[in-house]
Amino acid sequence: MTCQRCHGLMVVDHYIDMQDDSGNLWMRAWRCVSCGDVLDSQIRSRRLLLRTREEELQRDAERKTALRLSA
Length: 71
Known about the structure:
The chain has two domains: 1-39, no CATH class; 41-71. Helix content is 42%, strand content 23%. The protein has one helix at residues 41-70; strands at residues 10-16, 26-32, 38-39. It has a three-stranded antiparallel sheet.
């Protein structure tokens, strides 16, 4: 797997989550050996949601610009 930030090598790493109330203290995540970026399933879901929202805002802005130019 390749890091989205620096395109470096991502490796699976294990982390201890002391804030989690579910009792599941250990978690697995991808960590970039170059820049240290960490990616787990929750982070990936949030980034996907943010990217989708940004794309929607961009499309709305393009539509408004097209409407103004055509008027």
